[in-house]
Design brief:
Length: about 325
């Protein structure tokens, strides 16, 4: 059986860092509140003219070099993002062209914070079907451009960044099982009220900001992620004790701790970036994966569970061997 396997990773974080102390100067908050309620200590913020595709290019270059491939080997680009450069053309075509990848299948997926898990799952299917031989898969976000910097309920949470992986067919085990889900009944708990076909005139006004009922999102996230993790392991015939690492979406340290507890995993087996990156939405899982691989904690052959949850609600998990 042919698997798809991650053979290279990369990440990019914008230069500018905003600490909790910086936020204390602009809103009524404290470093202590942000750290204890969310785990975030600092976050990276895009420069004025910096776009999501700019960050993707940098992350992709690192992943391509890590995989030891040439751009001409790539025959598919899929990016998960809710903050594309333009409404169209889709961001993956911009990335394909800027990187010099020959014309290929290129599209983007919008699944909020679950964007990368959706993109990776999709690329896995193309590779297993023999329709792609080398996919560039990204999760990236300039989410701070959607944030109201006067709203302390949301602005302390988010950060920008991009993560990229190269996915290729392999006879060795790579991606073992993927699970995706979504339920639009929860739309009003987390949304951005401006779109191409709805309320476009509000773009750039005070009404255009992330709307979130944090407490309720928190509860559904913990419940749903716990369920999907259990389903993923069961489907793959794997028990919790077999897992080497959890690479979770980095929305809130308390959600991550709750997940680790459900999986009976000590926090030493969890890749944590929320303190340095904040919630980077679709970028958080691929960046955390890259951090863990590059600092030597995640090793070839290990069993890794990645999971994410976001606006929609959307959710998903990928179980894989590195
Ligand atoms: O990425 C995908 C999905 N997103 C998430 O998963 C986010 C999930 N939700 C959360 O992470 C948490 O709900 C938050 C971090 C957003 C909020 O934490 P919480 O423990 O649920 O706090 P809360 O919303 O219940 O607010 C508690 C108090 C409130 O004051 P009162 O009403 O008790 O007087 C807030 O006004 O904390 C206040 N508060 C703040 N205080 C200082 C809210 N934001 C801040 C702040 N600094 N930045």
């Amino acid at each position: 059986m042919t698997y798809s396997r991650i053979v290279g990773t990369g990440r990019y974080l914008p230069e500018r860092i905003m600490t909790n102390a910086d936020l204390e100067k602009i809103i009524d908050t404290t470093d202590e509140w942000i750290r204890t309620r969310t785990g975030v200590e600092r976050r990276h913020v895009c420069a004025e003219g910096e776009t999501t595709s700019d960050m993707c290019i940098e992350a992709a270059k690192v992943a391509i070099e890590d995989a030891g491939i040439d751009v001409t080997d790539i025959d598919m680009v899929i990016a998960g993002t809710t903050t594309p450069d333009l409404i169209f053309p889709n961001i993956s075509t911009i990335i394909q062209h800027k990187l010099g990848i020959p014309a290929c299948t290129a599209f983007s997926l919008e699944a909020a914070c679950t964007g990368f898990i959706y993109a990776l799952t999709t690329a896995d299917k193309f590779i297993k079907a023999g329709e792609a031989k080398c996919a560039l898969v990204l999760g990236a976000e300039c989410i701070t451009k959607l944030v109201d910097w006067n709203d302390r309920n949301t602005c302390v949470l988010f950060g920008d960044g991009a993560g990229a992986v190269i996915l290729k067919p392999s006879e060795e085990q790579g991606i073992i099982s993927c699970h995706l889900g979504a339920d639009g009944q929860y739309k009003d708990l987390l949304y951005y009220p401006v779109g191409a076909s709805n309320n476009l005139a509000a773009a750039g006004t005070d009404a255009a900001r992330i709307m979130m009922t944090g407490n309720d999102v928190f509860k559904v996230a913990v419940k749903t992620l716990g369920k999907i993790a259990a389903e993923t392991l069961e489907d793959a015939g794997v028990i919790k004790e077999d897992l080497d690492w959890l690479v979770p979406h980095q929305a809130n340290i308390r959600i991550i701790q709750a997940m680790a507890k459900r999986l009976d995993m000590p926090m030493e087996k969890v890749i944590l970036t929320v303190q340095d990156h904040g919630n980077t939405s679709a970028a958080s899982v691929p960046m955390a994966l890259d951090v863990g691989i590059r600092d030597g904690r995640l090793k070839p052959g290990q069993l890794i569970l990645m999971e994410a949850f976001g606006g929609g609600f959307t959710w998903g998990s990928v179980l894989m061997r590195l």
